[in-house]
Amino acid sequence: MNILKNIRVASTCIVLACMVAAGCSKNFLTEVNPSNRTTDNYYVDQAGYESLVTSCYPLLRDIAQQRVLCFQGTDVFAAGGWGAIYFNQPNPTGSAFDQFDVRLNASDGNLQTLWDFLYREINRCNSAVGRAPSVQGMADSLKNVRIGEAKFLRALCYFWAVQQWGDIPMPLTETATASLVVTKTASKDVYTQLIADLTDAVAKLPAKQKDLGRATQGAAKFLLARVYLTRGWNYNNSLGGTSADFTSALALCDQIISSGLYPLETNWNNLWPKHNINPNKETETAASSVAVANASKEVIFAIQYANASSYNGDPSVGTSTVGNDMHGRFGGGPSGVAQQSRTSAYNRFLNTVTCTWAAYRLFDPTLDTRYNGTFNSVSYATAAGTVSLASNKPNPQNLTLTYAVSDTTAVARAWNNPATTAAERGVDIPGGTKKYAVVNTNEYMGLGYVGATAYIDNMGWGAPMFWKFFQPGIAYGDGFSTFNDPMMRSAEVYLMAAEAIVKGATGAALGTADVYYNKVLDRALGANSGKSPQRATNPELVNDPITNVVSYRATPANITIDMILDESARELLGEGNERWYDLKRTNTLLTRAKKYNPWIGYGLSGASLIDAHHLVRPIPQGMLDNSNPRIDQNSGY
């Protein structure tokens, strides 16, 4: 339900109706509905009710693409430009969701957009649940499946909303008329409803659905496990959680694993679109690149994009979002040297969020296949071009380089394999010999400034491209990918189980927490399964010696919540819109984000501003303005 939109539209229509009535004939004002179709006479049989439930799916695309509130301000993602802090750029300014300053307030449009989308979706689901008893000519078995889908989707939206805002309005019936009265429901009562809805969905939904993308019993169990896990942590003692919730979460995870329906892919890279590191040598088409990934059995629930005209919707029937934009939102494009513009070669990179230094240094680039699967560390020319070093500062050179298509234009060295001699560097560095820029990890995001001195490098490159979601062959733009967004997959089930066991859950089917954790790790290691990969001991300290490392193989003695969060960062980076929720749930947002996110540590003029009140977001201004009596704002805003 879009509460605010309903209110505004209703008021506007009343005013317009009065104005029109004063100057128009009666015949002109007579409403004619040639088809005689209304919601009350259409959603009454199987065909109508099926279309109602179907309409609950398209908005997931719009909701999932509101990523600012889920990734910015975390340990592994920032809005971008964080190098400005380390390189002493004067008066650096980042995103409000990274710096947590006064700009993070009720007027921020990201808050209003997510709120409106969530409540619009909730109202659709309420309609589907509430109208079901009146539907005629539909087998109860099928009707119950569709009710289970609607309850799953409603629970998913309420779960996102209650984590973002805490106490929230929780209408459970269809809103058909405008109302200014808005009542908050306590978080613990929202969680009680989530568990009731999802328990019913588990009972009603089948193990498999004929149509790809519809909710299944496995998806409902996954979400219910996450709800129990979150309630068990009992944020601010406000969720009604107990230690028994961890055991409930673990039991559901074990059920999903033992079902055998969602086996881990043997090769982690099969989960993502296939692509050549050099776009000039690409052999995959848009369709072939995602064929394997979109069919993966590891994925429990995915938002569908592969068939824009399928039951999941298209712009003509209720959603403005046709394609997936994951390929262009996670930061980083190729070097700017010798590149075509506005083509599908590297497509569009909008940098809504970019990885922090810590995100790169959590991986073992040598042993862990996920490093090269997530990042592309080489940039290639896609057009013939030249670059002059005459304006480089502080080392101008009377040198112009020429590039042919497929020439290397930049290389980003992994943190554990830096260029240590001048001969290993590009000619933009005094003594360098390479025709391309060579960038060490402690130089990611460019120099920009060192003190008051501006640096310019016409060969420079910011950081490796975020490559995990890149789909070749799609039209240039930010929303045309046909890669189905994997919101839930079984690797996360293993990590949730490990978390529950660390928090005291009993009855684990596979043993101790490290067993679940290492299932995910060993798949990622591939041929190196069983070995001990090494991450930087201090991922945030980019000038730490590369010998200062620690293993991230789990044992019964060393596994902790922080270790699991590190592994979920490596395994799930950029997926599921979950990172902010993971850190809030585990009560680590303040510590991990301040430690690993440069903007959060910097805050404002060097004073970090993040504190406990930021663990819930401000209620959007539109909701405040359009409620009577005025709904209470969250504390601290």
Features of this protein?
single chain, 17 strands, Serine Threonine Protein Phosphatase 5, Tetratricopeptide repeat, two-stranded antiparallel sheet, disordered N terminus, globular, 3-stranded mixed beta sheet, 23 helices, mainly alpha, 637 residues
Textual characterization of the structure:
It is a single chain. This protein starts with a helix and ends in a 12-residue tail after the last helix. 38% of the residues lie in helices and 8% in strands. It is mainly alpha-helical and 637 residues long. It is globular, with a radius of gyration of 26 Å. It has 23 helices and 17 strands.
What does the radius of gyration come to? Answer: 26 Å
The assigned CATH architecture of the domain at 3-263 and 298-323 and 482-512 and 559-625 is Alpha Horseshoe
* Topology-level CATH name of the domain at 3-263 and 298-323 and 482-512 and 559-625: Serine Threonine Protein Phosphatase 5, Tetratricopeptide repeat
CATH hierarchy class name of the domain at 3-263 and 298-323 and 482-512 and 559-625:
Mainly Alpha
